[in-house]
Fold these 2 entries.
Entry 1:
Amino acid sequence: MMSSSTTTAPHDEPKRIVFDDPHGAVGNLQEAEVTRVRTLRGAWRWTLIVATAATILLCINQQFSLRFFVGYTQLNTEYFYLLIALMLPFTFLIFPGAERAPLDRVPWYDLVLFVVTFAAALMLMVNVRKAAEAGWEFGGAPNTVIAAGLVMWLMLMEALRRTGGWSLLLSVLPFTVYPLFAEARWLGPFRGTQSTLEQATAYHVLSGESLLGIPIQAFADTVIGFLVFGTALMMTGAGKFFINLAFALCGTFRGGAAKVCIFASGLLGMMSGSIISNVLTAGTMTIPVMKKSGFRASYAAAIEACASTGAVLAPPVMGATAFVIAQFLNVSYADVAVAAIIPAVLYYVGLFMQVDAYAARHKLKGIPRAELPRLMDTIKDGWYYVFVIALLIVMLLYFKRESHAPFYATALLLVLNQFFSKDTRWTFATIGKFLEVNGRTFVELVGILAGCGLLIGAFSMTGVVSSLANDLLHIAGDNAFLLLGMCALTSLILGLGLTTTACYIFLAILVAPALEKLGLNRMAVHMFIFYWGMLSSITPPVAIASFAAAGIAGSPAMKTGWESMWVGSIIYFLPFFFVLNPALVLQGPSPYLAGLGLMGLAAFGTLFICGGIQGYQPFVGDLRGTGSLQWPIRVLLVIGGFVVATPGGGIMPLSQMQVTLLGLGILLPTILVAFLLVRRQPVMPDGLRVP
């Protein structure tokens, strides 16, 4: 369990803010989830630990070709089914089937589902080699295999309900059974090739396009390794190091507590790839300090929620969806991580500007240096993390070994931790906790990813994707802006009911082909869908990150959600920027030079967007000093900033020069008027201007 502590210095030296978490923040995450999941104890806990260890060893064997199975070469499909057999059955033990289901014991019906799921997965694994040789996925599979497939189909739907809720099940289930009546006239543009129940079942469970398709392939090839690395990093004291480093570097700045929150959550998120764990790790320390510094509770929680949302946007370790994107585009994960760099930088720059403007408007000062951790002491305690992160980045970006990189980085981390850290040195109990935490994460992801794989299989079976793309283009009249708007709205609505990964998969199948047919860059299109799909983490009524932060801050949940939208508003603009000019995701000719130039323009425009949103413009002052013109000036600042930040050329009717000049034409007179009005206000004896 995390705690913030203070070290008492002798005599009159003030207490220092120090984050002390020797065992990482993972325990706090589990305690926060205890109302939603069942904590396994005794033999079942050890069964999960053993199954998790086997899963990790299987992944290492497959990625490094170690040939654990002497004299036997394992097919990829057999490997996938082994992972499913090891992890999917635990869905029914960890996730209760109903709100009133007992949490202190495993009921008999969940044990039945556990055994049935394991048996079905084992049956399919044993037969999947024969299926590949005989082409059973297209027909002719034995009745026993079809029966096992039907059981697996049903278990996957129940696993989806338990891990993702009714909204996810009701979004996926109709499409998984849709091939059974795909020729019905009332389906309109969704009409396609119809299949019998036996054909659909065989295709779903035996082909490489459905259950064993892109989502499970991404999990088996890369996600496991990065989850292992992220958990190991948190359980070796990275949370303590990154948060104390953030306090030491940013604490004294104006609104320093909030800037510490952004910096610390950004650092943690880059390593963990999890929004909620990021909130619960950094938020327990940063939110109370922000409140103490003068930030109101809902605003402090909103800052933490927005900063933690960057966990799935910032490389090198992004969320599971980033690995699915790589599989969809058939590129390396390193390519996706590189494409995410500039958007992530712009997002965090926007958050910093928002916080700075808010702190200036409300005259919030930084934390006294005497109360902050000493920079050199912090570096001394965690210097070895630099080598671990450097190894990870080099292997990802230079050697392009994304499946190997997290395992090498984890091995180096554990060796350095055992040698250089007394507080976080691992014991056998730590290893058990490490495997248990990873097991819970694996189980939840397999439940969601395997079920969503059937969504891909359904559209692959019916062959409607291409015709649907043409229908969307016809509706939009080949207007890229209208289609992007339709896509953004659809992504936002779906994201309110689905997980980010499920939402992305849904739209990557249905909408992405239409956007690509307009000539838009593929990477930019998929990043656009990804960004809009994950906005639900800070957008009410779901706003899971905002609600988690509100629980820590003691603020109203919905109010925190609306504050989060306000604070993180830059994220609603960013996807349009990089889809208009793919140089912002480092695509196209001379991407690095063009990308840096566009990033500079976008950051410059963001300065005015944030000034207008918060009501304080740097180099001008508090816009309340403009009197009755305050809101017109703020609106013009947001519009002008948005125009300056918008890339020109491409599908835009104006060139980059014309767009920039138009934006400056709005901003310059607005700033001049605001400057003159603010300076004309009388000055009080303490140097402050009367608003």
Entry 2:
Amino acid sequence: MFELLDRDGYGRIGRLTTPHGTVRTPVLLPVIHPDPARQVLSPSEIRSTLGAEAVITSSYILRGRPELGERARSEGLHGLLDFPGTIMTDSGAFQQHVYGGVDVTPEEILEFQRAIGSDIVTPLDVFVEPDVPYAEAERGVVETLLRVRAAREQVGTRLLAVPVQGGLFPELRARSAQGSSPLADLLCVGGIVPLMESYRFAELVRMLADVRPFLSPERPVHLFGLGHPMLFALGALLGGDVFDTSSYHKFARRGSLLFPEGSMDLASVTEDFCGCSLCAELPLSRVARLPEDQRIRHLAAHNLRQCFLEIARVRQAIRDGELWELVERRSTAHPAMRAALLELRRHRELFLPVEPPSRTSFLVTSDASLERPAILRFERKLAAYREGRGSPSLTPFPGLGLRELERAPAAVRADPLSRTLWEVTTPIGPVPIELSGIYPVGPLLTPAEYAPEHRRSVPAEASPPPDTGPGSGAEQTGPETPLEPAPTSPGAHPTLALRHALGIIEWCWGRGVREALPLDRVEVHHSRSTGRMREILLDHEVAFIVGNDGLPHFTMAGGRWVQRLAPRPSYRVVAHADAVPFLREGRSLFSRHVLGADPAVPPGAYVLVVDEQDRLHAVGRAILAGSEMGRFLRGVAVRVTAHEHGPQ
């Protein structure tokens, strides 16, 4: 029922298929009150004017109103609400949280949801409050799992949303997630609302970070009750695929406006600053003068539109690989959001298995930017790259970037295999010159680059002295070495180009691959217009293509070299024999046809697609992490870029 299409770490764009259609994720489910007299915007209006693909309503409230409940049984839930799209129902757990109990059994509420034709039904779980003692939280988890197992048998093939409880106790959340994942079609992280209502966003981050590794990746994740637009980006970053909101009408009744930057009282608005289509038709300054029922209706529509717009921004950020940047921008909405970002920095390890090798950009938007998982992984790989090279002399060259590699001192160009690491200074510390153009260093932009005193390109004689003070990570081995004059054409110094090529190959596929390459059979081609390295050839055949991120990916020729030099299962995805004919035509490899994969492969990495005998049939870009392949029943695991008969 769930297919992953694109991603940025745990942030995912997918397709969620239900009996009443397919919805895009991340998706927002407006909470619909089943009593039309209490619902300020009708479900049909929400669908037609705001584009809602799915909604959620309370089966408990509906069942408690006999007239409406009977109509739902006879007309069906979709007919009652006049909503042809996906409808999810909850079970009364939230009312349990508010009132301390509910007057229905788990079996009765499940049977009612089945009878009214809910697309996604929810068992009656035990709502675990965040601050209860461990023993009480454990009882709630145990009882919820018992009810979920019974619910799975009762609902059969109907889609089942399974709550994950446990309060703020990591081991209980893990136990709940592990027990729920095999039984669920949709995993719902519960107990969130009390944290939101008291602005305990940092604790929310800690709780979601604790539970995320134990949630099956092939299941969509619903963050129950996370309904304010300033939190959607943060929720998606931590793996939320489905959100619901009742805030749009609750805040409207209070006379409040919702924005991704926070909330605002309508009474304080004196300027018509909102540019949404509703406020273009009726400016905010006039909304305050409307009769109460019209004012509430307008505010509810405005708030829901802001929620949908933010979900769209989140999806776009995932596609662009900018979700971390969006979260950092949203962290300025409130001090509690800032606390959440600070807490997020403590959980960088969590993201490493799904951290892509590169993105199109790296913008430093806050003091937390240089502590993103991309930096942590780069630093660790850099330590491994330096390891075993003895105690090399580290000579920084300020102002020297990858485009100016050709101007490096003669000593750098003398021997591509030299153990000396010639380094350039970067905002994240000294980096070997051959790695200075790869992600995240290459595209990294900091505020310092836009300061008045900064000069992107400075003559060698005007270069500032290298940073060799305490903490610089660099050792000055002598007077600053002057740069050579720029060559007349790209690639004028083949030994330096070879050093560059070997460096990025080692970065991606290890020192063993680098050292086994026959140097006399390696050629490097550069772009005539930019001077950037574009191709690495072996025996006059293109083996590696260098992307704009400075990283190489292999063609079939390069794939054969890496396959021979790297032991199994390194960089490999093993395809079922049934998929081989399609691979040989350049077709993508679907997850259901994956027999195994290197668990260290992150999404976005280039991989070797082999059969069970380790015969290479294609190379391509991983859409799923190696540990996720084979678990998704739908969707692509590897998008093939080249196959046995040539590039796609």
